[in-house]
Design brief:
Length: 169
């Protein structure tokens, strides 16, 4: 973990105030939502969690980090140096733990359109600053999102049901 500098704290506080004033905290989920913001002194790109149903059985979650990366693809911000802020918040705008999941951290490290300097997120009610390489080293395959674990359980349950049916034939 890196030491959080005063200028980082000021910049993130300004971003949080801007989010509140511009009503950027969008609440789709009754429990909590996630917002990802790529920012530097000149730009800010915000992505949100989105849920899409491929079929009526399995919902697919687009994580906020991936939504923000998709938005950057349409901007002319190539090779900019930016920071990444990941926030998970309740509908009352209370911040919760928001460490990026294993796959999002991997995608952030592979993202070639911008250079990510630092990743900021909340953990145990404290703001954490970490470099992208440290995030990859610390995140393991055990740090999976709840949606990914849910889909894996559904798939495993369907495989067990299929095996059971095949045995009965």
């Amino acid at each position: 973990m890196c030491h959080i500098e005063q200028k980082d704290i000021i910049q993130i506080n300004n971003l949080m105030e801007h989010f509140k004033e511009a009503n950027k905290f969008q609440c789709y989920n009754p429990k909590y939502n996630v917002l990802c913001c790529f920012f530097n002194d000149d730009y800010e790109i915000i992505g949100y969690n989105n849920t899409k149903n491929i079929n009526s059985y399995i919902p697919v979650q687009l994580h906020a980090e991936l939504d923000a990366m998709n938005k950057i693809a349409f901007k002319s911000l190539r090779k900019q140096k930016m920071n990444c802020l990941v926030l998970r918040y309740t509908k009352h705008k209370y911040c919760c733990n928001s460490r990026p999941c294993y796959y999002c951290a991997k995608k952030l490290s592979e993202f070639y359109q911008i250079k990510i300097r630092n990743v900021f997120f909340f953990e145990n009610e404290e703001l954490v600053k970490i470099t992208i390489n440290e995030l990859i080293d610390e995140n393991t395959a055990s740090n999976l999102s709840s949606g990914f674990r849910y889909r894996m359980n559904l798939m495993n349950r369907n495989k067990k049901d299929l095996k059971y049916l095949l045995k009965r034939l």
